[in-house]
Specification:
CATH superfamily of the largest domain: GAF domain
Strand order of the largest sheet: 3-2-1-6-5-4
Number of domains: 2
Bound molecules: guanosine-5'-triphosphate
CATH architecture of the largest domain: 2-Layer Sandwich
CATH topology of the largest domain: Beta-Lactamase
Order of helices and strands: HHEEEHEHEEHHEHHEEHEHEH
Length: 371
Amino acid sequence: MNSSAMILPASETHRLEVLYSYGVLDTLDEQAYDDLTRLAAYICHTPSSVISLVDSQRQWFKSRFGHHANQGSRKDSFCTHAILNPDTIMVVKDALQDPRFMRNPAVIGPPRIRFYAGAPLITPCGEALGTLCVFDTQPGDLSDAQRDALATLARQVMAQLELRKVIRAQQDSAHQLRHSQRQLEQQQQLLQQQQLELEEVNQQLRTLSLTDSLTGLFNRRAFDARMSEEVERSIRTRTPVSLLLVDVDHFKSFNDVFGHSEGDIALQEVAGLLKNNARSYDLVARYGGEEFAVIMPGTSTVDAERIAERLRASIAAHSWTLRTVTVSIGVATLAQGDSIQTFISHADQALYRAKEQGRNCVVHWTGLQEH
Ligand SMILES: Nc1nc2c(ncn2[C@@H]2O[C@H](COP(=O)(O)OP(=O)(O)OP(=O)(O)O)[C@@H](O)[C@H]2O)c(=O)[nH]1
């Protein structure tokens, strides 16, 4: 008999799929199966018994009692014939008298099978995976009781296979669950990271939207927002707040003489000097073209004038490369009932007076009232 002459069950493709779904092929020996083959040989009075699973080209033995090889060629196997009729136990009383097996290598050579009985292993969906079989080197037969017992043991083999399949499925789904949980955790981490990056970008955008690009100081928008906060705080806490408006003197002529780019550099230097000489809690902003503003929380008239003078002096004393740059500063301190517009206009009027007085000087709005 060669493989081309091998008779296959009608549902061979499906049968093989079902067999593989048990994941039993090529697994290690297990006591539960070995107990069943030993019992089968004992009950049937044969020296050998195997649990044979019929693969596409081989028969593989999950358990062997009295038999050494753990697999054999399918085309020479008795079990290939046994699974063709899943409802019956195949009994070959004397293989040398049976035309199907008389020239079989397992009959004329080792293990020299003469007697064979195989009970098919039937799955719940009706496929025969292989057999629980017993065999002997002498001719033989089974009593009805032995046949019943062999069929019962074959059902026990199937019960073991089913049990392991269920356990494996549970382990797989537990593994799957752990895998999904890990994936979920990774996605959450990724999401958190993206949120952090988004917040960082938003923060950068917020900073950019409040920053003057030439000088790096706060821009007019930031000034307006902070001004509202500080005026509101001053009224609520009854603490003073002062404002400086700082304007570069004769800057038009600076531009005219040295060019706009040098003018830009001079504005950057003025900005740096204001920032370095103001206090950390003062807000220094670029108010307009060559005009700056400093909001000074908690600062009274006297202190505001003193700080304004320090700022003016630091700019005048700076070692300018092209020509000395000076600033005029108007100072105002919020008075009771002042609106923001009034507060700013007081500082503006004081600045105007400082320009009138010859520039490079500080004038406080209260001083204007006294004159
Ligand atoms: N380089 C440069 N110049 C600017 C910038 N913004 C405003 N200016 C110039 O600043 C000059 C301001 O001139 P004016 O308002 O006439 O005042 P001033 O010449 O400084 O004279 P006083 O303020 O009266 O001392 C103008 O020539 C503007 O072009 C800027 O970003 N860069």
